[in-house]
Amino acid sequence: MTVMSYLGAIGAAQREAMDADERVIIIGEDVEANVYGTTGGGKSRSDKGDFLQRYGKNRIRNTPISEEGIVGAAAGAAMTGLRPIVDLSYSSFLYMAMDQFVNQVAKNRYMFGGQASMPVVFRSAMFYGLNTGAHHSDRPYPMFMNVPGLKIIAPATPADAKGLLRSAVDSDDPVLSFEACLLWSTKEDVDENEFWVPLGVARTAREGTDVTVVAISSSVPEAVAAAEELAKEGVSVEVIDPRTLVPLDRNAILRSVAKTGRLIVAEPAHRTCGAAAEISALVAEEIFDSLKAPIIRVTAPDMQIPFSPSLEKQMYPTRATIAAAIRRVVDLPALQPVATAV
Amino acid sequence: MAELARDTLREMQLRMLRIRAFDERASKMVKRGHIPGTVHTSIGQEAQVVGATMALGTGDYMSGNHRSHGHPIGKGSPLGPLMAELVGKATGVCKGKGGSLHLADFAVGSLGESGIVGSSIPIANGAALSSKVLNNGKVALAFFGDGAANQGVLYESMNMAGVWALPMIFLCENNQYALSTPAHTVTSGIISERAAGFGMPGIKVEEGQDVLAVYDAVSAAVARARAGDGPTLVEVMTYRYNEHSEGLRLGTDYRNADEREAWLRKDPIVLFRQYLASQGFSEEELDGLQATALAEVDAAVAFSDASPYPDLSVAFDDLYTDKESAA
């Protein structure tokens, strides 16, 4: 074990993947200079970049600022023998390549009757919570959950960032990785040897018996903090981190809610048609009779992200808003209307 | 012009005849309801398709567009699974999941057609990137029309191909109309001249109904790509005889009769037949090619007719590589 940051763990996974398979290449804007800290030495962002020296310009390629062309070329390369990792830096930039994601990356395997494999990973960071304004703060993973054919990961810890990325690179299906800038500097002990976290398997971040909080991305540490706070008041909260949003570990979520009878879903994305909405619908459809209280979503509201720090910091789930939601579901009897929380 | 073997010349005519016969049959099948939806035929554009596809090697890659039955046929794909795909049969080249707009035959390097104009251009560019990284000597070619020539992704792709010296050919099939819109009314300047802005050769083939003219131009681009000298833009002037799609009745005369007559007089199959006759091919042999193509299309339709439709149980197959991920 060694202490790694979330960002350093991504770099370590990329290095392992590059070492393991010569078909793996990294393309993206500014990858040669290790601007975003994942094409360097590993462990932490401050480590000097050496991917370029180690793997050469043939496998580490700076691209022009041409997201549609980059994503399409990565798809074509994946269909013909390479296993590209594409660094798209900011998640908001994915919109520039929407046609390629939806019409080529997601559909080609199916509509060509299985002739195409699409072993490609698209990494991007969600820069929300950092006062970067409306064009850089998006958390767009729910809209890609609506596109069959893509797999989607959203790691919340350094270990998961490393292990999930290895599985993503090894997958013969296209994987979009949504990484949270707010978590970049998070540190924990991570196995410095190779390991793989399987896609589609949730992690129980904290065990509990009274309430289930399903939390996504940077909402995971907030949910754990809320759970610890509520433990002092005698409420036992279970925190489930799906880690992979497609395919979603439905059974882990249903098992937990069947046990606790109460569900809070916390995520930094917009409210309408978010992952929280999907998970809420899943539980309502499958185990409605197990519920002792209405489901509550704690999400960002359906609005643009304002620039001013005094406004932005209130937009995403916090330990306080998650704790408030937990208090509601344990204090109120079931079937009584509950105002939705933001 | 390169001296071509008689077998190659014969094969060129046969492939053009296959495309003509295949698309004429497909057109009838759409009108009779035997093919669901619609198709976009390459009738009139056979020289441009075959000249380009036969300039590629067997292992080379290509991506197509919505008017793309001819591309896999030109690259040597068997007709039966293509026809079965148009009908939606389980034996289709894409197992009935793709249809006319999404034919793909990876066995001949056909990486698929796209119903979104311009969308498949970067796919071929990525195949060229693979060839470059893996150093396997393959080249890639993207077919696109005059309509797609005004899509931004073309220029993103040309820039990347240029700066990375990818073994890539951008092949613009200029049939002069984007559905009903004359290309010159929405296109500033000359498409082939845009290559200069990306530091690559731009070749315009005015005689795009001459299969040998197209073959020579694309062969030069392929040789350049394979030598490591980077991409080329080739614009081929051609004409589609039929409507944008079969069954479409626009009720407006956006193409005048004189223009159409002039292009019909330059029919690529008739022109090449005359050339072959001048090269000593007998009338009997040339008639035989025509009969062969028609018989192959008959056999393809018979193959499709005898094939089952896909069972509902396979609807989710190939959504992901593992069945568990499909909801």
Automatic annotation (TrEMBL), chain A:
Residues 4-185 form the Transketolase-like pyrimidine-binding domain. InterPro entries: THDP-binding, Transketo_C/PFOR_II, Transketolase-like_Pyr-bd, Transketolase_C. It comes from the Bacteria. The lineage of its organism: Bacteria, Bacillati, Actinomycetota, Actinomycetes, Micrococcales. Its cofactor is thiamine diphosphate. Keywords: Oxidoreductase, Thiamine pyrophosphate. This is Alpha-ketoacid dehydrogenase subunit beta. It comes from Cryobacterium serini. The keyword Oxidoreductase applies. One of its GO terms (molecular function) is oxidoreductase activity. The keyword Nucleotide-binding does not apply.
